[in-house]
Amino acid sequence: MAIIPQQTFFVWSEIENLGDLERLRLVLEYMPDEELMRVLEKERGKGRDDYPVRAMWNSILAGVVFEHTSIESLRRELLRNGQLRFMCGFRNGKVPGAYVYTRFLRKLFEKEEMINEIFNKLVDELEELLPGFGKNLAIDGKAISSFAKRENKTKREDGRRDLDADWGIKKYKGVWEDGTAWSKVVKWFGYRLHLIVDADYELPVAFEVTKASVSEIKQAHKIIDKLNERHAELIERCEILTADRGYDDTKLYEKLWDEYEIKPVIDLRNMWKDGEETRQLEDYENVVYNYKGNVYCVCMETGIKREMCVGGFEKDRKEHGTLKKLCPAKEYGIECKYMEKCKVKQGIRIDIKEDRRIFTPIDRASYKWKRYYTTRIAVERVNSRIDGSFGFERHYIRGKKKMKTRVGIALCVMLAMAVGRIKEKQADKMRSLVKSA
């Protein structure tokens, strides 16, 4: 398919403001699903073709766009909506029975890799269409409950119980405005969606579905490496990856910066002992730092502690780079009685190897770090759309294979809408509706 360069900035609200039929048209036109259709048609062979493969697939996509949580809900919509039947490709006025969808979905669940490839093709297109796509990424894990409420003692597969899901727990902690601490524990039976999105355009670039108990950090290593294998140019373009404190892991910091030169902007957990407020910085007798990355110099005469100024990151110094910190007295014109004798008045350089969690290529004490961290909300917005707009708040899915396929289709729908909207903003033409299958 020819790529049409896109110069204007894409925002997801343009998609959300479109009507359902228009969103469906974008999905049907711009979904790169021809290979999948040919494989399914070949498997069907020369038998009865009352309900063509392409029409069945289009109706599954329509179910996602129209937020149908069950096949029966989708069938009712098809029965009363002739325009929708026409768009999907059911030309004889008939609507497939539930058993037809059961057989079709069973075939579809075996095509997980092909659906993943459709997703990757759409990511490739967006790399070409959107300037800076992949430059700023965000990662998060999302709980998706199984339709089954708990583990079943009977381990026999019969389609009515979930033998793949397990229990997941996520803990949230914080401090209220009055200084009191709060915590919340969320527990669910099901799965976890691990998702990387473009933080500027709020579009997914990589995903994986695992059991709920799988660690976010361990899966982050795998999904980043996998993203590099399939979309090396996107990883090379990436400059920033943001994440919440659930991804606070020394090895992840090292992987991102040392292997891929991606600057991690990840919130910190306080892993210091109770009552330990600061630590002395190696090689400097009057410089201390806290677990948040704030660095202070201490006047040796008065004992006054002042936060040192951010001086930037020096990539080529030492093995992995150094953070530069400047004297606050010199920068702000503050009177310091020990300044003339102070060994740090010319500034200091902190090798990030001092503590890879605390000292990162983007200084945690800088406004730049805080500005980038706010972009992490992009992945939360995508997760919200997955729940609300694509029906994962209320679904009837049991089993890992089904969940991975359904999530993959939903994310493909999201990307196909984006590709279609971007291209048609530059093009005046309107293609015909779906051809008769």
Q: How would you describe this structure to a colleague?
A:
A hairpin with a 4-residue loop joins strand 3 (181-198) and strand 4. The protein is elongated. Helix 2 (20-30) crosses helix 15 (400-426), helix 4 (53-65) packs across helix 6 (82-88) and helix 8 packs parallel to helix 15. The two termini are 20 Å apart. The strands form 3 sheets. Strands 1, 2, 3, 4, 5 and 6 form a 6-stranded mixed β-sheet that branches. The protein is built from 15 helices and 13 strands. It has 3 domains: 13-127 and 400-426, no CATH class; 131-150 and 164-270 and 374-380, 2-Layer Sandwich (Nucleotidyltransferase, domain 5), CATH 3.30.420; 279-360, no CATH class. The model is unreliable at 1-8 and 427-437 (pLDDT under 50). The protein is an alpha+beta fold and 437 residues long.
